[in-house]
Design a protein that fits this description.
The complex is a heterodimer.
Chain A: H1 7-19, E1 25-26, H2 27-37, H3 45-54, E2 58-65, E3 68-75, H4 77-101
Antiparallel strand pairs in A: 1-3, 2-3
Chain B: H1 3-13, H2 19-36, H3 41-48, H4 51-62, H5 68-75, H6 81-95, H7 100-104, H8 113-125, H9 127-171, H10 175-223
Classes of the chains: A alpha+beta, B mainly alpha.
Chain lengths: 107, 229
């Protein structure tokens, strides 16, 4: 991957991945899903999830799975707002970049 | 190194982290190993590099003493190099207590804060002088738009009515008079119809462009977003 993923884009991808699961999803699965999209180290994702949680964009709950507690992440109302904001911003941004790279750039 | 040793070392390394954050992080990585499964244990340890590397990333995010050497080490990896630097910038802002306004600047489309504030001050100071012409210009554009609509409407309605009148006169037998009036009606209609095109041009292109321009100007002045065309 020659293009870099900035912090905001990473937040957007994580929020989008988590929002895809109505009942919430867990760290390992989030990492697997995000890695389908971008090249990211496994250890990079924890701080992102923690920060999104502290900003009230994600909430966590523990649930029994296979005889142990598993931590689940779920998107909150303000997380959904933030995600929609990122989606709009990304649409504008990617359209511009697409147009430019296709050589259709005009003012 | 196995999972147990990895987690024990990580716990030791996180001793200077607030207890709530430590428990959260340890729970996350315990879960992670558990969900990856026993077969992938070594893969996960390999991918995570070392307990030191993981502890480093957690602490950096919490704003606890960034160690230079590790940073360089990680930056050599391809792929998320820029993410790291962005992250560091954000963290240094958090630790110095800067507000979210500043972090917006990271998004690239924002111009220098000082620059847009200068323009904002200039805008407010000159408002008593420039306010009149600005309002005048807006009113003129609005007036011209209304006029274009009114003239077009009048031309089409009067043209149509005159044509109907001409036909009625024709039917009463006054042929010359009837053709004359019918002709006048057609001319009025012919002038009016292109007016519809003009009106639609105003509504679809000119007005949106003006409104978008004003919006961009205000976003620049008050929020510091770059003015893009």
């Amino acid at each position: 991957m020659v293009f870099n993923t900035g912090a905001a884009l990473l937040d957007a991808i994580v929020l989008s991945v988590v929002s895809g699961e109505d009942t919430g999803t867990y760290g390992y699965k989030i990492t697997q899903d995000v890695q389908q999209v971008i090249d990211i180290s496994e250890s990079t994702l924890y701080p992102v999830l923690r920060r999104l949680q502290k900003n009230d964009f994600l909430e966590t709950y523990d649930q029994q799975y296979d005889g142990r507690n598993r931590r689940y992440y779920k998107i909150t109302g303000s997380g959904m707002e933030k995600l929609n904001y990122y989606r709009d911003e990304w649409r504008d941004y990617s359209e511009k970049v697409n147009r430019c790279l296709k050589g259709e750039w005009s003012i | 190194m196995n999972r147990r040793e990895f987690m024990q070392q990580l716990e030791l390394l996180l001793m200077d982290v607030p207890v709530e954050d430590r428990i959260d992080a340890l729970q996350y990585y315990e879960d992670y190993f558990e969900d990856a499964g026993y077969e992938k244990e070594q893969d996960v340890i390999l991918e995570l590099q070392s307990p030191q590397a993981v502890a480093q990333i957690i602490k950096r995010d919490l704003g606890i003493k960034p160690e230079q050497q590790m940073t360089q080490n990680r930056e050599n990896q391809s792929g998320f190099h820029d993410y790291r630097t962005e992250y560091e910038r954000q963290n240094s802002q958090q630790t110095t207590g800067e507000n979210s306004n500043q972090s917006d600047q990271r998004q690239g489309t924002h111009v220098s804060q000082i620059d847009h504030k200068l323009w904002l001050i200039l805008f407010i100071v000159t408002l008593p002088i420039t306010g009149g012409p600005i309002c005048g210009a807006i009113a003129t554009i609005f007036g011209l738009t209304v006029a274009a609509f009114a003239v077009t409407f009048a031309m089409i309605v009067s043209g149509g009515a005159t044509m109907v009148g001409g036909i009625i006169i024709l039917c009463t037998g006054l042929i010359a008079k009837g053709i004359l009036i019918l002709g006048i009606g057609m001319i009025l209609l012919a002038v009016g119809l292109p007016g519809i095109l003009l009106c639609s041009l105003i509504c679809r292109v000119i007005l949106p462009a003006i409104i978008k321009g004003i919006g961009k100007l205000f976003r620049f002045l008050f929020r510091g977003e770059a003015m893009t065309v």
